[in-house]
Amino acid sequence: MATLRIGLIGAGDNTRKMHIPGFQKLTDVELVSVVNRSPESSQRVADEFGIAKTASSVEALLADEEVDAVCIGTWPYKHREFTMAALAAGKHVLCEARMARNARGAEGMLAASIARPELVAQLVPAPFDFRLGPTIQRLIGEGQLGEIIETRVRMLNGGGLDPERALHWRHSYELSGKNTMMLGIMNEMLQRWLGDTLSVVADAAIHVRQRHDAEKDRDVQVRIPDSLTVSARLANGSRVIYDISAVAGGEFGQPPGEVLLHGTEGALHWTFGDHARFAKHGAEMVEIEPDEGTDRGWQVEADFVASVRDGAPVNLTNFHDGVRYMRFIEAVWESWSQRRMIEIRAVEENGGEAQPSLLDAKTG
């Protein structure tokens, strides 16, 4: 079997902790080059992980004939540019989540991937339900909860309340765009369980409006909300209520993250850490264990390699599904900004060109 040679574009925390070890434990896979934010940081990563060479630029890495595929580990603001350039250069792409800064950027990535069907294009998936997700999907699909009526998503974290906390890339509109706290990653997980969102009504606030950018040594205005509520209507007829905050912690004994599914015949309570309980109405809640063979854990890199080598379908997560969650994220942003309901157009799945969203192109 020919060795699959991978180049790293960006080597942040998740790349060093997850992607590099994930690739290095696979047979006939070699990390051959890395380019990071500076020559010095590129060399540090190469030395730490035994990568043969560094590239002077992203362009140089993509021009390298020894690179078959790339892992893009930058912040969202570069995902569109680097993904489209990699696909144009004939490289398979594994791109870090979130997909892009906004829906239009994600749509451009999808169109570029459709134009190169021989290349694998995969996003790093939301990992929160790797243990129980397939089992929960089965329970829902079998009708064990009956008809889903309402779902409540709560993600509370008071870590953003401190105004002295330095600017994180997640606070930066320049780097993150319209990605807001844990909204996108939770929606991606719920897409797998419940399907598409049709419309949203959102309200949000920015309580800490200024943070210090240590890299640039200046204070910057924060444009991304740190408190958000969303009422969403789904294609299956149910509603989802999102309650997400970076300024309201868990002082009242609540789990930091939870999803409550309410159906006509039963209910399911999922908590952060991928544990869940289920009960028919009137019965006691029981712990859910994963169906046999479904608790796969983290296999992101192995899945990517299997898609490249064997043509295995990309399920976690393909670019079509990435555009779906990015359109949701942007619809929420526009709803709270414009104080109105926003409808979301479905993503075409037939291999044709990516369809434009209903969102205003001028919103950036």
**What is the CATH topology classification name of the largest domain?**
Dihydrodipicolinate Reductase, domain 2
Uncertain runs: 351-364
Distance between the termini: 45 Å
What do we call the CATH homologous superfamily of the largest domain? Dihydrodipicolinate Reductase, domain 2
Order of helices and strands: EHEHEHEHEHEHEHHEEEEEEEEEHHE
Protein architecture, described:
This protein is α/β, with parallel strands linked by helices and 364 residues long. The chain folds into two domains: 4-127 and 297-317, NAD(P)-binding Rossmann-like Domain (Rossmann fold, 3-Layer(aba) Sandwich), CATH 3.40.50.720; 133-287, 2-Layer Sandwich (Dihydrodipicolinate Reductase, domain 2), CATH 3.30.360.10. 30% of the residues lie in helices and 25% in strands. The chain has helices spanning 13-24, 39-49, 58-63, 79-88, 103-115, 133-141, 173-176, 183-194, 300-310, 319-338, and strands at residues 4-9, 29-35, 53-54, 69-72, 92-95, 121-123, 148-156, 197-205, 210-213, 218-221, 227-234, 239-245, 257-263, 266-271, 275-280, 286-287, 342-343. The strands form three sheets. The chain has a nine-stranded mixed sheet with strand order 16-15-14-13-7-12-11-8-17. α4 (79-88) runs parallel beside α5 (103-115) and α5 packs antiparallel against α10 (319-338). It starts with a strand and ends in a 21-residue tail after the last strand. The model is unreliable at 351-364 (pLDDT under 50).
